[in-house]
Amino acid sequence: MGAYILRRLLLVIPTLLGIMIINFTLTQFVPGGPIEQILARMEGGGDVFEGISGGSSEVLQSGESDYIGAQGLPPEFIAELEREFGFDKPPLERFLNMMWNYMRFDFGESYFRNISVLDLVLEKMPVSITLGLWSTLIAYMISIPLGIRKAVRDGSSFDTWTSGAIIVGYAIPGFLFAILLIVLFAGGSYWRIFPLRGLVSDGWEDFGLIHKILDYFWHIALPVFASTIAAFATLTLLTKNSFLDEIKKQYVMTAKAKGLGERRILYGHVFRNAMLIVISGFPALFIGVFFGGSLIIETLFSLDGLGRLGFEAAVARDYPVVFGTLFAFSLIGLVVGILTDLTYVLIDPRIDFEARG
Predict the structure, then answer these.
(1) Integer CA distances (angstroms), 102 to 11, 17, 83, 334, in order
(2) pTM, to two decimals
(3) 186: helix, strand or coil
(4) Domain range list for the chain
(5) Domain 117-195+221-356 adopts which CATH fold?
(6) Whole-angstrom Cα distance, residue 49 to residue 47?
(7) Rounded distance between C-alpha atoms, residue 25 and residue 79, angstroms
(8) For 297-339, what is each residue's pLDDT tens digit?
């Protein structure tokens, strides 16, 4: 197993490098870079993309800067901006310098926020941890017992109506469900039971311990519920199908012939085999929710998390934030893939990736 882990760790390097090369190359062809953004604002254009789409600004002739919005500004000022942001260097040199810094976990400083990328990510982390952790845990806590029950009572009225409810829940987009929750329970049109903004109330630091915990769960109830609905449906059906496959196997028939009770058969024999796929996917599911948390849900509930950070950085062409978070999240995602394989082995020691390799 050690050799397999070593091979996987060595594969992380070229994979991560490929991800960064592709994304860095794409940004070289995307209009509206950070300098264009600054110049457009200084010229009173508001947004550089208005000039690009409207065609009202003309690109300067040869010998002058080709940045849209540069008209009327001295070339020396533009050249100074280029030096400040590092755009006076060739793309290859900029990429190599960036990767060298990232190898030392130096992600630089945001162009527009005057804060280091690492501090910025840590600042937004509580929201993403909240949505990712609680949504994943709640989905597993509900889906596994429900999926087992549906497998045991396959074809019954209970299985039929719960399947209908699950399909309806899965069909409703998370953001639409979030709007429904706001309308019903956050003062939209009916009851004002839950708050609409933030992760905690003002003055939370001065609350007692119990009050802090209750206030925290009071704020996260609706956004977590909205982000859980799709994962809940998928996990329930996956659990049911896994158990149905195992229940039909010969060893279950043998256990029943020996007179073992249904509960002992399910949780003493079937559970470990049936939950292999479900439980081993926990790390990947958590990372997916954690890093890919719904931007719309964060926006609707005024939660300033990594989803909004990534979107705003992409729009503003804040490249240190875009590439720094991309590098860190890609690295974590690749490591989680290795942890997922280790989880398979932990649940079922019969799996031997090294023998397969």
Answers:
(1) 18, 11, 20, 16
(2) 0.71
(3) strand
(4) 34-88, 117-195+221-356
(5) MetI-like fold (1.10.3720)
(6) 5
(7) 22
(8) 888 888 888 878 888 888 888 888 888 888 888 888 788 878 8
